[in-house]
């Protein structure tokens, strides 16, 4: 049995692997990251676009014909939006296995208005964070979450919680059918 993750980003791959391995029978699951298109902007700027990016990545994995019916497909898409309480970043996760879907969302991480303005001008959040904190390629490390929480949370930890919650559908399928 395989776990295919719709990204080559090591943070997304590790988060998916750590979470899926907790399901019964999947402790020894092999994982492969696959670069697939999201079909949305490199920096999704709305909840809807972010969710669509995660779902599109799973569809791209399905279209690739890499997976069998027994395999698990996961995609994680980070995005931003401006809410009533201000701009924030978050992620959507899409999970597919044996003709069943689950889509979930992480909590919001508030963003400074200055960062959001740079995003509306075409920058990606990782680049904004690298510039502001003098880091390099933070999106493949702790991410904005690590930086803005002083490493009390990380991009990976937030993805793992979002996936854990979305997997409830697979843990108790009788309750969701």
Q: How is this structure best described in words?
A:
The structure is a single chain. With 177 residues, the chain is of the alpha/beta class. The chain has a single domain, classed as Maf protein (Alpha-Beta Complex), CATH 3.90.950.10. The protein is built from eight helices and six strands. Strands 1, 2, 3, 4, 5 and 6 form a six-stranded mixed β-sheet that branches. A hairpin with a 2-residue loop joins β3 and β4. The longest helix has 18 residues. It is globular and about 45 Å long. The two termini are 24 Å apart. The mean pLDDT is 95. Belongs to the YjjX NTPase family. Homodimer. Keywords: Hydrolase, Magnesium, Manganese, Metal-binding, Nucleotide metabolism, Nucleotide-binding. GO terms for molecular function: ITPase activity; metal ion binding; nucleotide binding. InterPro entries: ITPase-like_fam, Non_canon_purine_NTPase, NTPase/PRRC1, YjjX_NTPase.
């Amino acid at each position: 049995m395989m776990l295919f993750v719709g990204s080559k980003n090591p943070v997304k791959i590790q988060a998916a692997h750590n979470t899926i391995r907790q399901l019964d029978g999947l402790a020894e699951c092999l994982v492969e990251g696959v670069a697939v298109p999201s079909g949305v902007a490199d920096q999704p700027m709305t909840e809807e676009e972010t969710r669509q990016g995660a779902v599109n990545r799973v569809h791209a994995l399905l279209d690739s014909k890499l997976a069998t019916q027994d395999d698990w497909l996961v995609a994680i898409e980070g995005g931003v939006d401006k809410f009533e309480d201000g701009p924030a970043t978050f992620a959507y996760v899409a999970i597919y296995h044996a003709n069943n879907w689950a889509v979930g969302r992480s909590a919001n991480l508030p963003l400074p208005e200055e960062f959001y303005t740079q995003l509306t001008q075409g920058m990606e959040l990782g680049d904004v964070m690298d510039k502001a904190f003098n880091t390099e390629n933070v999106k493949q490390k702790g991410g904005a979450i690590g930086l803005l929480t002083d490493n009390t949370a990380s991009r990976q930890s937030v993805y793992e919680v979002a996936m854990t919650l979305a997997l409830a559908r697979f843990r108790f399928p009788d309750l969701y059918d």
